[in-house]
Amino acid sequence: MSNLSVQTLKQGQNYTARELDNFVSTKDVVVLSNNENQLFTDPEREYKVVHEFEGFFEHSMEDAEKHFRNKKAYVVEKV
Description:
- The chain has one helix at 17-26, and strands at residues 14-16, 30-33, 46-53, 56-59, 66-69, 73-78.
- By secondary structure, it is mainly beta.
- It has one domain (14-78).
């Protein structure tokens, strides 16, 4: 993909770390990667979107409850 201004991620497509960085910087999303904290270390490394979720549950330390967050979440893995 040559367009760095990605507006949406599509399951099954590959994106460079640079494209993902730009996307995350401009959208309110969560990205989970199988290479942990190294997602943005090599801007040209490619990742495939393997799952897309409309939201997720998280535990709140404030009220000790689980809350559903209506926030896009993507799982990517190195290609």
